[in-house]
Design goal:
The complex is a heterodimer of chains A (257) and B (371). Chain A is an alpha/beta fold. Helices cover 34% and strands 18% of the residues of chain A. Chain A has a single domain, classed as Alpha/Beta hydrolase fold, catalytic domain (Rossmann fold). Chain A has 9 helices and 8 strands. In chain A, strands 1-2-4-3-5-6-7-8 form an 8-stranded mixed β-sheet, sandwiched between helices. In chain A, helix 7 links the parallel strand 7 and strand 8. Chain B has a single domain, classed as Luciferase-like domain (TIM Barrel). Chain B is built from 12 helices and 11 strands. Chain B has an 8-stranded parallel barrel with strand order 1-2-3-4-7-8-9-11, surrounded by 8 helices. A two-stranded antiparallel sheet of chain B has the order 5-6. In chain B, strand 2, helix 2 and strand 3 form a beta-alpha-beta unit. In chain B, 47% of the residues are buried. The chains are: A alpha/beta (257), B alpha/beta (371). At the A-B interface, helix 7 and strand 8 of A face helix 4, strand 5 and strand 6 of B. Strand 8 of chain A pairs parallel with strand 5 of chain B.
Amino acid sequence: MSVVTLPGGAHIEYRELGAGPPVVYFHGAGGVFRNAAFMPALAQRFRVLAPSRPGYDGSTGECGSARDEAEVMAEFLRAVVDGPAHVIAESAGGAAGCWLAVLEPSLVQSLILVAPAAFAGPSHAPPPSSPEAMEVRLFGKSPAWTEPPTEADRAARQHNASANAARLRSADRNADLLERLPEIASPTLVLWGTGDEVVPPESGQVYLRRIPNSYRILIYGAAHSLPVAACHQFVALTTDFIERGDRFVVAESGVAE
Amino acid sequence: MKASFFASLPYGRVSEPVSRWPVPNRLFDPEQAVQVVASRMDHVALADELGFDWIGCAEHHYSPGSLASNVSAVAAAITQRTSRARVCIMGALLPLNNPVRVAEEYALVDTLSGGRLVAGLLRGAPYEYLVYNVPPAESRSRFEEAWDLVVRAWSDTEPFGWEGKHYHFRNVSIWPRPVQQPLPPIFISGSSKESAEFAARRRIGLGLAFTNLAAAKPAAQYYYQQASEQGWTPRPDQVIYGHLPVYLADTDEDAFSMARPRVEGNHLVPGMMRANRLVAEAGFFGPRNPELLQRFQTMGEHAPLSLEQQIELGTLLCGTPSTVLEQLRRIREELSAGVVSLNFETGGAEEQIQANMRRFAQEVLPHMHAL
């Protein structure tokens, strides 16, 4: 784990793996998972940086909104990456990823939104019956961990979520961001699992309607946190999109049926 | 209770006995096919005029039993000969086809018919899996994924891609979408537990075909039970039973005499039975349905059923109009089925088929509607 102090005063913890084109991952409500298998998988082709957003894990900084977070993340990119990066923004980190692409287009080479929760209403699914059921709802029945989560991992995830959810909750469901989505110029890929009971897949339509150069892929049957719940497909799609850009819609031999 | 006229599109007589499957197409005569298809489309127009509620068609391959190799094309033709009846595709065999293409074709049929489509999405009979080289053991997981993809293609209004276990698409945004919103009526076929559970979870109808009352009753009950557990009750027209050959006459004796030589004896094609068995043994039915596997393994080994036994099992309708009405009443009561698919292709001459249809429409259909 590395730490950087940014010009605005925020201290940001981050994990870094691999070498190659830079990919920055904005985590969801649970923070950065030390044992998520998608990190080393992506790191085989990319330099992967996973900063903990201000207020999560050991990161600090004054952020009352997703827009504030995006400004801190812009500082992070300038300080650590020193140039543009491919940005993956998941779930509760989705709004910050979108704001970054709106405010600092030169820093976002491409944007990959993973079940972003920026405009979603409350889930209609009944509440999970147990902590184990909640884990299945988040990570599916075959989560891709490098090693099983410990009680400390679960406690950290729970702390991250409860400590930051209220602070970042937008009373108007990010209405200002919604208006500005059409300004996103970066090629954007929206990923969603059809089995997502946390943020319904239907809430993905708005990104397609408003972001000019956007694509959406549904991963059949996958739960909410795709990097963990559908690691193989997530890494393959993300890699393909980053490496082939717009050509990613064209079938390659041996890829599509 | 509704009547669905089954437009099965049989080729008719072939020049030599058929024992193998696929049936060699050197026996195919294009002129006969043109003629028979034209006459069957006349039947479709007649059925619409006579008040049959639905007109159904189904996909089958490689045999003179049916020329409906592309069921959407048949359904499209039906839309152009009808103005009132619903057009029921019973259905495309989903795991054998490109699901996006199925979604497009069905939506086009819904458009051509002005919103009269009933969308059956089926897994098919075992032997069909030898047609397009699809592994039988994958049929259910292919079916379930394809079903979700079809419904997504019908209902999602922004472009999407699909990354599944069996299907991979980067661009889906079909034109036309179905006329009926949010979705056309949908059913799947199923005698298996998995089918009943799937239909109950998705809140869609269940078709019970190539079965009999004794087997269909527990399947229907299981479906109702599963639906109840999911918090809903199927409408009567969400349980479809068929396809039943219809033999009508002035007396029961006359009807029995007409039907007996056509239905008694062994009419099974050995090659098709073998194909069915091979596919069934390759895991088509899965581990939860040993009785279905056994049925296909032993098909043809038992003594052929008598006409009376077939009537008792509810696999055909035979008798005077009032007798046939009682047979339909029994189906209604035992299965709570609201739609029966009727097959008037019972080996009779062209005039007999049409006369049978007219008589059914005049003397049975009004009472059937009241059941």
